[in-house]
Write a structure and sequence with these properties.
Cytosolic phospholipase A2 catalytic domain; eight-stranded mixed beta sheet; alpha/beta; two-stranded antiparallel sheet; 396 residues; 10 strands
Amino acid sequence: MARISPACNLVTMLSIDGGGIRGIIPGTTLAFLESKFQEHDGENARIADYFDLIAGTSTGGLVTTMLTAPNENNRPLFTAKDINNFYLENSPLIFPQTAKSMVWGPIRSFFGAIAGPKYNGKFLRSKVQELLGETRLHQTLTNVLIPAFDIKLLQPTMFTTHEAKINVLKNPLLSDICISTSAAPTYLPAHYFQIKDDNGNSRDFDLIDGGVAANNPSQLALSHISMELKMKNPKFYPIKPMDCSKYLVISLGTGIAQHEEKFNATLAAKWGMVQWLYNQGSPPLIDSFMQASSDVVDINMSILFQSLNSEKNYLRIQDDTLTGDAASVDIATTDNLLNLVKIGNELLKKPVTKMNLETGKHEELTGEGTNEEALSRFAKILCNERRKRQGKSLLS
């Protein structure tokens, strides 16, 4: 059920940003989207059944894996509605918030910015290894793209199902990919692993968080599909590269704090290395380049689809009003986690927005309704596309 047959009329893509515990926000959106699929196609419908490619960075990479890794019945390991339960249960263990750490947290974080990562990452590693076992990239139930960054080579590393199926040295364990793409600098340790083939060849990977390369991986997803089309991948015949009228992209952000205006140039002008790595409870340098990455991609994607008269084929859902603990990637207190669930539910009720290129803020798109309504429209299109490929009658 998870693999869609060829002869496609649309190439469908889902993209999920990085953002630590804020993965709860797109998790809420995905639960709603999957529920719409189930309304049309029954309770066994899953996100992986409807997208030709799912791309995810960092926490988005974890979500991508949960949605596409096979269980013992060759169906997705997690339903979309289970994603937030995973975060609520495991985030406090990945990012422990003990009473002692809450008291000494600012001091420890200050010295941690110099001495080493804030968290040891042991629980995250053991958890993903327990869940994924020996499952490898080529086994995902639909095609995925998960970026990481090779700190030794100083270049991005893209893990894709397409490449994993043809090259053993690009077919790592899914657990290694998850640990790597989520290894955020200053928060979690870098990850090393090696792949060997049957001929004695090997490849080393020295990886950190994919957000260093692409915190919003939607443009990478588009480029990857364009390359597959150029190479005449029969699954996508007869669509041509960069025919945006034949692309459908849903891009999910994890929330940002643009309205908070926490820092300014007067303050930053006096900062040295330590202040850039730790200031008011967060690392401004890391926050800045990861958010810049997400916004630049959103701007480019929006302009591309508009310029090719296909703006209704691209949906970006993002909340730019986070403040305080909600804007953090690691404050995994019960109150904050539940608040993120609330923010995710409220985001569904908010109007569809587009980024203002002058202010960087998201403004309502008149006539497009709420995010919930837009997802419902996209769900119907995706269900129609799936039924066409299966040779079934269309939805009314």
